[in-house]
Amino acid sequence: MLHSSSAGSAALAYQQDRICPHSVHPSLDGDQLPLASAVTMSSQSPLSAVYTRIGRPDFNGLATYGRFGYRPEALSHLTVVEGGGTGLWVPQTIATAARVKVGDRLTGSPLVVSAIYADLAHPVSGWWCSEAKTVVPNPLGGDGASTSVIWVPQVSDLSSLPQEFSSGASVSLRFPVEPLSTLAEAEALRDRGNALVTSLGLPLTRTDVLTSAITAARTSERNVSSALLPLVIISVLVGLAGVGTVTVQWAQRRHSELRLLWVRGAGPLALGFRGVLELGLPLVAGGLLGLVAARLLLPLYAPGAVLAPGTLWVALGHVLVVVAASLAVTVLVACWRAHRTFQRRARSWRLSVVPWELVVAALAVLAWVRLSRNGLGTTLKGGELPRIDVAALTFPLLVVLAAALLATRLLRWSLAWSHRVQWWRVPAAQLAVRRLAAAVGPVTGVVLVGVLAVGTIAVGSAVAGAQKSALDSKSGVFVGANSTVQVSQDIALGRVTLPSSLRGNTTLVGVSTGALVVDPATFTDAALVDDAASVRSLLSGLRRTGDTAPALRIGRAANQEIQIPGLPLVKPVASLPVFPKLGTRGYVLARESVPAVEQVGSWHLWSSLPLAALTSSLQAAGVHYTNVADRARVLDGLPFLTVEWTFGFVAAIGFVLAVVAAVALLLAIEVRRRQNAVSGALSTRMGMRPSVLWSSHLLEVGALASLAVAIGAVASFVSMEFAVPRLDPAPWLNPAPVLPDLVPLLGSMVLCGLLVVVVAAWLALRGVRTARMGELLR
Fold first, then answer.
1. pLDDT tens for each residue of 8-54
2. Which SS3 state, helix, strand or coil, does residue 179 take?
3. For 343-426, where are the alpha helices, taking DSSP H only?
4. From the CB of residue 688, how many other CB atoms can be counted at a distance below 10 Å?
5. Helix intervals (H) in 141-267
6. What is the DSSP letter of 360?
7. Helices 395-416, 690-723: inter-axial angle, 10-degree rounding
8. N or C, where is the chain less crowded by C-beta within 10 Å?
9. DSSP 3-state helix, strand, coil percentages of the chain (rounded to 5)?
10. What single-letter DSSP state applies at residue 483?
């Protein structure tokens, strides 16, 4: 409950981070309006903007393309190059082209230039992003297609412009709001915003990006909740089984007291409620403490710490239901134990006879069929989140559960036949086997929970890591580098040189239909490739010697000569399975193989620098660019994050199960403290060395921990090897998710297992060291 609510809030925060702050509230836009009408409409919004059509403002007889605009506080968000004050603020490009200086007057108007500011360029700040399409010109576009804005200090100044700017104006109405935290706040804002926009009754185009963000967040929340429901149910069942095991051990320790009560007339049901009197308070306190711990540790295992209103109360209701179920299990198990101990044993169907591992294995096969056919699920429309197939998602967990059940059944059979083992030449091993056989129930329970713990930790951590790396890899292939911008062909022709700050981290790439034109010497300095040395070696061999241009064939492209518009005849000479930007289809040519670089479709700079660093260097050098792309924001990562959050919770459940397994192991040893003390004390007084007894307990506990780690790791690693490539939220993009390096995870689990083994063995020997022989014999 807490995790799914947190996932919804985190999804909203992610979507909100990708939306312009001033576009969160429903907004209005209009163009081709009379300037006077646009000015009147602008008064209906606390943050509006009015822009004239593009014309040719005249300063001192020199006219160039430009447009005028007004937006409250716009001047405070501009960088002044010269001047200041409250007159016209002219962008530097227009000032340079029209030779405008501070103090010049606009022809046909009383307005005077008071400042020259640096043109806005991508990426713009959050205050400008909603207006970027208007205020940021395209320097590579045709004359008059776009231009920077000449700002007026007051909206009334627009009426003083020349007559040619009085028509064709545009207006934007924005409604700034505070950042949203929960989906309930977002839905309330959407409803209020749409009602407000409707009440204005303006003939403008409404833009409502918040609705799509809410829909995506709700879908993400439902996906996480539905995907986790089977795991939560299994975890609750495992927990209830643990409660039953603890109740059995309680009945063993309270055997004398229960027999006394039985002799005095107490029935099985009364003895069952006697167990509740002793175990009920810990169960209730444990449930409440678990809820408190889940809330306090929410930032550690969940995608965020923000919860929807009322979530804690709903979670408390679920906790109380689980606590009530635990108390019911305690009564039933204690009652059943008393009946079997003090009354005639009734013949009953044993659940252990049912081949549960075969049932779970059949479910795993069905889940694999769904996963291999549909992957995570299908997307009905572009841009929507995939509806996650829960059956497919549970495949690796079902494999782990089947392996755990099979391991416990084989272990139970092995311990049943262990009395035939004669290892007295190795007394430590013989004693360890005898103790395991004497406590077959707790032993198999610890192994079952331990395998589930190791498997779920491995599955959750590996799939979450694979999703994170898949998003990073796919965005890298989609963009080609950390950041890219489109530039004019003057750079390819050598008319414009790149600034020195971009040398060694930037390369020039030509993009044509189905082909890339690269510089072999600098391409790997910026492009995202797996094996830079191998790619560099292949590219350096693309030397043109005749009429055809040698090329790399990428993936599924045809292995034959092909004519691409604007390029010479292409002849594949080598191949690679995948390549940045091209994916799995296309061709790569060397720049020196293309004689007419001006015929290449477009030229782009690829850089290993962040987008802000790349564009700031270009701006400082006066290099024009457009069509920026940032690897960190080019893809919608919410589908990947949804799967990552889901399996992050799986890993968290695994950690909880690991704690349960460790505590169950220590509790089982504590229950057998008196038996261990008697046997250990007698053994040492009969000549057994303490080191042998220590080794015996280490072998006993170490065998359980080794079985749990080995079986859980193998089952999870094998299942993930098949499942991870198919748990792909965007299968149309390469590369597919791959299994991350699991050696550190396995090493950490082994170290934690060793720690538990040492502590458990120490607890077992503590009673032997402090035992009084006379008291034990009595």
1. 899 999 999 989 999 999 999 999 999 999 999 999 999 999 999 99
2. coil
3. 356-374, 390-393, 395-416
4. 16
5. 183-200, 209-253, 255-263
6. H
7. 150
8. C
9. 55, 15, 30
10. E
Our CA angle for 229, 234, 236, nearest 5°, is: 95
What are the structure tokens assigned to 636, written together? 């919608």
Whole-model pTM? 0.84
Model confidence pLDDT, tens digit, residues 304-341 = 888 888 889 999 999 999 999 999 999 998 888 887 77
Listed in sequence order, the DSSP H helices in 109-182 are 132-135
Please return the burial class of 632, using the count of CB atoms within 10 Å of its CB with bins 0-12, 13-18 and 19+.
Answer: middle
| Tokens 């003083």 -> residue | 160
Residue 491 C-beta-side C-alpha neighbours within 13 Å: 24
Q: Which of 610, 589, 613 is nearest to 601 (CA)?
A: 589
Would the CA dihedral through 751, 757, 760, 761 be positive or negative? negative
Token pair of 14, please?
């992610």
Strand 149-151 versus strand 67-70 pairing type? parallel
300: tokens are 């550690």
CA geometry: angle at 417 spanning 415 and 422, to 5°?
100
261 and 274 Cβ atoms separated by less than 8 Å: yes
Q: What is the pLDDT of residues 208-249, one digit of tens each?
A: 999 989 998 998 888 888 888 877 887 788 788 878 878 887
Give the pLDDT confidence of 682-739 residue by residue, as tens digits: 666 555 666 777 777 788 888 888 889 999 999 999 998 888 888 888 888 888 888 8
